[in-house]
Write a structure and sequence with these properties.
mainly alpha
Length: about 230
């Protein structure tokens, strides 16, 4: 396996990761999140650059080192007191608007499909409609901030978009060249095994999932709607 893509695509994806980082920090107002995210990004970038994740026949898959730590961290934040305090202080506006990066992610995925680095089923043409979450995020926040819609609408939108990203994640895992691959054997999802695209499952998707968790918690708790 090798990665054959264009420099503009790599540049666009790196910009997407940077925008995600900026929005995550704006949402959390946390120096620890800023420093921890940068260290995690640098670590995963360095490991992926060695080709470590391209050895896909190992059991358990080496790729667990990409997805397990951030997903476990999200679960920890959901249940531990320190995590609950962080979630309580997160800015709902930037938590919603962070989902706009999903537009850029889907553009990158379509571009990767053209380079035969992901299958069609990972794109909006192949049934991955996650781009709609990105397109609607600023509209939903505007409607919520103007009090045209309430918490129930925001919560429902959040659930639908969560199901959308989980659909994309499952498609990616089942189409990647792991021992448990079930689909897309002719053109598997290989881009995520390489730098910089490893940052999609390592950082961007966990950031999106964290924001879903925050929106869920904040829409379930009775608080006043945001002031203009």
């Amino acid at each position: 396996m090798d990665l054959s893509v264009s420099l503009p695509l790599i540049t666009l994806f790196l910009a997407t990761a940077l925008i995600t980082l900026i929005l995550l920090v704006k949402a959390t107002h946390s120096k620890a999140v800023w420093i921890g995210s940068i260290l995690w990004i640098l670590l995963q970038s360095a490991v992926a650059s060695t080709g470590f994740y391209t050895k896909t026949s190992a059991l358990p898959p080496r790729f667990l080192l990409v997805i397990a730590p951030p997903l476990l961290l999200v679960l920890v934040l959901a249940f531990l007191p320190a995590g609950k305090r962080l979630i309580a202080t997160m800015d709902l506006k930037w938590t919603v608007l962070l989902h706009s990066v999903r537009i850029l992610v889907e553009i990158c995925l379509y571009w990767l499909f053209l380079f035969k680095q992901v299958p069609a089923l990972m794109t909006f043409e192949g049934g991955n409609l996650d781009i709609l979450a990105g397109l609607t995020a600023p509209i939903v926040w505007w409607a919520y901030s103007k009090q045209f819609v309430g918490k129930k609408f925001l919560g429902a939108w959040n659930v639908i978009c969560f199901l959308s990203v989980m659909n994309a994640l499952i498609r990616a895992m089942l189409s990647a060249p792991f021992p448990f691959q079930r689909i897309a054997f002719n053109q598997p999802t290989v881009a995520i095994l390489y730098f910089p695209f490893v940052l999609l499952p390592a950082f961007i998707v966990p950031s999106v999932l964290l924001c879903h968790l925050v929106i869920l918690r904040k829409t379930l708790v009775a608080t006043p709607q945001p002031a203009l």
